[in-house]
Amino acid sequence: MPVLQGWKPDDYLDCANRMGALPALIGIGSVCRRQISGPDGLGAIIEALDAALPSGVRFHLFGVKGAALAELGPCDRIASIDSMAWDFDARYTRNGGPSTLEHRAECLVRWYQRAVAARIGVSLC
Predict the structure, then answer these.
(1) 47 Cβ partners below 8 Å, 6+ apart?
(2) Residue 72's pLDDT is what?
């Protein structure tokens, strides 16, 4: 999957223009730990790409922090999101015990359930 990179919304648009024809799914990179609001926030990036790219192009967002999920709300452009927040939770909630697959799976399921619940809200797109 091609991945658009940048810092400002115009950087991502420039990257998309350089790629030419885009497939149905593109990655949006460099969003780890990024705030949702502000001129360089994830919201501004998604809004700029939504306005400029063909309607059939959907996004995979790399490394979206959990707190941003609720603010993103449902958006037809967002096909998928990944995060390592569940892994951080797994490492720091084991209370000195071993990092078992069962514990890690529980943390992943808990993150997924929170992510699904958080994505119910006002759409940016």
Answers:
(1) 9, 124, 125
(2) 73
Encode pLDDT of 42-51 as tens digits: 989 999 999 9
The packing angle between helices 101-118 and 85-92, to 10°, is 140
Q: Is the dihedral of CA 32, 83, 54, 23 positive or negative?
A: positive
Beta carbons of 73 and 124 less than 8 angstroms apart: yes
Please tell me the distance from the alpha carbon of residue 101 to that of residue 59, in angstroms, as a whole number: 30
Q: State which amino acid sits at residue 102.
A: E
Tokens, residue 55: 């309607």
> HSE on the CB side for 68, CA within 13 Å?
23
- Give residues with Cβ within 8 angstroms of 106, minimum separation 6: none
